[in-house]
Each structure stands twice: as C-alpha cells, then as structure tokens.
Amino acid sequence: MSRVLATEAEVVALSPDASSTKAAQGLKNPSKWPSLGCNETAAWGECQGSGSKPYQTQVDLSGPSFKCSCPSRKFPCKHGLALMLLRAAGQVADNAEPPAWVSAWLDSRAEKAEKKEAKAAAIAAAPPPDPEVLAKQQAKRDDKRWDKVAAGMQELQLWMQDMLRNGLANLSGDHQARQHWNTMAARMVDAQASGMAARIKEAWELVDSHPQWSRDLLVQLGHWQLLADAVARRDALSAETRADVMAALGWPMDKAEVQARGQVVADDWRVVGLRQIEREGRLLERRVWLQGQHSGRIAWLLDYAQGGRGFETAWVPAQSYRGSLHFYPGQAPLRAIAGADIELLAPGAGAPLGEGAWRDALAQLSQRIAANPLQPVQPLWCGQARLQVSAGQWYAVWPQGDAAAALVPLAVADDHAWQLQALGGGAPMALFGEWEGGQQSGRWRLLSAWQAGDGQAPWTNIWQNRGEVL
Questions:
Q1: CA–CA distance, 373 with 438 (Å, rounded to integer)
Q2: Distance CA 445, CA 366 (A)
Q3: What pLDDT digit, counting tens, does each position of 407-436 carry?
Q4: What beta strand segments (E) does 242-282 contain?
Q5: What's the whole-model pTM score?
C-alpha cells in the first residue's frame, strides 16, 4: 500500500472541519459502498447517497488529489475522507483493477502532466531567444500595465479624498455605499490591479462590524495611500520593493520567473498552519504556512481551487515535508512555491518550534512589517502562552516575568478556544497564527497550538484549525 495517508490520523488531518470528520466516520462502513478498490496509484469507490446513483469518489495518491461526483463544496468531501479512512483501516481491496471512470480520470491527469513536462522540455530545448529583444518586449508590456495601474490608483485617491471629506461615519447605514465600493473594486480590476480590488472589498466588510470600525478603516485607507505613492514613485524603487508593490497590486509573477529570481531554501518543512477562505464565484483560497525545521524560515504557499474542483496538492497539517522552496523576490519574502523535489516524511519528532518570548516575536514581526508594510497578513509564532477570556473576547497571555507581557486579542471561535483549553490542560503552549493589523489595533488569528513533550517527541501539535473555511 502506498505510504500516502496510511494512517487515520493523517486522513483526519486533511478534514476541512469537525462536521466533515464526523460525517466521514459515519460512512466508514464497507456496506455503504457498493464498490471499493485501490492500488499503488489510486483509491476509488462508489458511495450510496440519497439518490439512486451512487457518488463516484476517487483519489490520486500521487497528490493526493480528490475528486467526487457529490455536490459538496468542501475539499476533501466526506466521501473522499471516508474512502481514505477505509483504506487506512485495511478495508479496501489492494492491487485491484480500476474501473473505466477512474482510469479515464487518471489518464487525463497523466496527459495534462505530460503536456506540461513536454512544454517545459520544448522551452528548454529551444534556441535561446535574444535576451535584449525579450527585455525590450517585456519592458513594453510592463510600461503599458503600469500606465493602467497608475491611472486606476489616481482615480482611487480622488475617491478616497471624497470619502474622507464626507466623513467615514456617513458610511454607516448607507445602503448605496456598497454599490459605490463594488464599482471602485471593478474599476481596479479594469486597471489590472486585482489585488487592490480585493483590498477594497475586504475593507468594506469593516463598516459597522464593531464599535471602532472607522478607525480600522482609516488604517486601511492609509495603506492604500502608501501603495498609491509607491506606484507614482515606481521608477525610484529598488527591485525588491517594486516586487512587493506588484504583489500587493495582484500583479502575477510567472513560476519560471520566481524560480529564476527568488531564493531557494532546502529544508525539512513542517506545516504549522493552514487556512482556507471562500472568495466570490466559488473560488477557494488556501494559505499553507510552513516552517523550516533547520533554517527556522517561515514560508507561505498560496493557491486556489475553482468551483469545487479541489487543490492539486494536499498539505497535511503538522506533518513534515523534505525539499526545496522557491521564495518570491521582495524585501522580506514570505510567499514561496514548492519545488519538484518536495516529499512527505514519515511521522516523527520535529525540531522545537515557537519557543521565543513575546518580545522577541514582536521584534521579528515589526521587522517584517517595516520591510514590507504592504503585506496584508504576517505569521506570528510565540511560546509559553496561555488563553484567557474576558467579556466574550479571548486573549493570549504571557508570563508576568516577561517585560513585554500583554493581553493579545485573538481571532478564534469560542468552541475552538474552549477545546484548546481542555487539550492544553492549563499548561503553557506555543501558538501560531496570522497577525492581522488594523483589526481593533491588531488581532492574532490562531491556526495551531503546540506543547513541549518528552525527549522522543519534543514538540507536539495539540490543535489545528484543520484548514476549515474561514
């Protein structure tokens, strides 16, 4: 049997939420599956649902990648999880011959991969183009796009001035304001600044969201003005700062360019946090946070799945992978893409994580923000924390002996916080999450928690948000 998702714990780690895990456990019965099978390449099965035709569920173990004919928008769905739970329990016949619908799917994936490899090989084998000609062509395309972006940002500045002149408080209860904001977001898309469009839509959600919403919205407007100033001064910026500005604007960078310009770091990478966000048009955004167990480097992998198709690669929370990451260029690069050599390691003890004091964590956070203030979220690791609740708000609390000890507001569901309290048993924990500036003076969205163990397992993951859609 393939090593991929060989244990129940590894399968459950991929569950999007607790309800999916519970539903999958309810389907972990061979009698509910008219057909089951697996081999070294894939696992498949037909699960009887409420309709007359069973759902066809299949998993490509090379990813693993999931596909199911059910209408669920969760990834993986309960059927995919249940199939892999049955396989991990040894209840799926091994070395079976896949049915035609599985073979067709696998063939299509293999064909797509072959075309991709053939295209890469053709590019590599082709005579190298004249670098000077290529540079001129790229510069011409970039100039046209910068002109569009600059015009859009100028229009955005005028819009912000009008908004401030009228007063942010007037946005409260204004039913027509949302349409104006959506129109401006669409204008940013036309100006080829999709990242700015996303910022506008997210900022609108602040209106009337809490008593201090106008303050937080003003912080966002300040970031927009900073970005507009950077666009106006783009020719005077360093290559790294310009790359940060382009990323903030949503200017895509080709994978080959990242591999050519970005830093390559080889390490054993542990998945320390995973978050999924549902965007408009059934677009699912996935953020995977990794930490190098030897370099200590934090990396952020960002990818998308459209229309419930699922992600090409599965990242198991708390598990480790060995290989190289290619970091996007920038002043304080976080985003990266995985190299072709990435492989899942067998479960085992990992290097200590998140042991630093709060003041050290804040110092690192402030350095990254100062280097790139345009990055919307930042990773934050800190050890020796406890949780405390006051007036319905959860906080992270550090020992009083720490000179920088403070009550830090957390973004965490109430039931998750109580669960974490029970799992931790009141002992100090290392916490990891995304620091979101501007939200009530900053919030820490928890993604995972860890505790020190014995010599065989010096650092144990006790809680993950399981990549649930937030």
A1: 12
A2: 17
A3: 788 988 898 899 999 988 888 888 999 998
A4: 264-279
A5: 0.79
